[in-house]
Design brief:
Radius of gyration: 31 Å
Structural class: mainly alpha
Shape: elongated
Mean pLDDT: 75
Largest sheet: none
Helix content: over 70%
Amino acid sequence: MNLFLDAFWRAVAYCLRPRVMLLSLLPLALMVALAWALGYYFWDSTVEWVRTALAASTLVNTVSNWLQSVGFGGFKLALAPLIVIFAVTPVLVLLSLLTVALLMTPVLTRLVAARRFPQLERKHGGSFARSLLWSLGSTGLALIAMLVSLPLWFIPPLILVLPPLIWGWLTYRVMAFDALAEHASVEERREIFRRHRGWLLGIGIFCGYLGAAPSVLWASGVLFAAAFVVLVPVAIWLYTLIFALSSLWFAHFSLAALQALRLEAATVAPVGAAPFASDTVIDVQALTWPHEPSATANTDTSR
């Protein structure tokens, strides 16, 4: 618990540094450019395709006619853009997570290591290619979990548990791996994952709940079309800043755990061998034992 809380407060303090704030703008720029490109090339065709699918649905037409009778006739027109926006949101969140993991996490981990653990040996247990494969594999498993559990999201209690749990597991897998990739060996990383899996998952789940906060801005951008251009980039930046916080939190926690693991290994290390090697040849005849006359003395006595 002490390590958990200490790493959290340190991560919050690091997020206020100008360097971290500037780094958080880089993924924001990439996400805005990607969203603009997707919207420019695919928005009209995607919305039209969704409207065609909705028009062919008897249930949607029935609900739309009922809403029109009570004075909400524009609901059907707004439904297609809403569906597209809510469908794209998880993709942008995932891309934001991967962008932070690949671009920001190594820089932030080096910042934490340089300021807190300058003497910590780097064993390079994870390369960039391995980190990329690990992130893509974990993201694929998280997407599968989302699709499998999607019907359960309509049950009121589970909607508050399952998405943050999946996001937390993904965040823990990606960020903890990247935080230890440069300093820990493969064996050390596995041991830290085994010992601290519960706390690491707790950090990921907590950050997953924090990641739900920008969804309010997404909903506001959908409800208030005039503010969409402003609120959506702000929401993406908040996502990025929260992921940066989680990255710093994992860096402080993981590197401190790695340092403690190495200190423990050094403490319980076996006592060194004898001061001389086993193949050392000792001239027994050259030794003079106490109260034993030397060869020279015997010679003088014989004379």
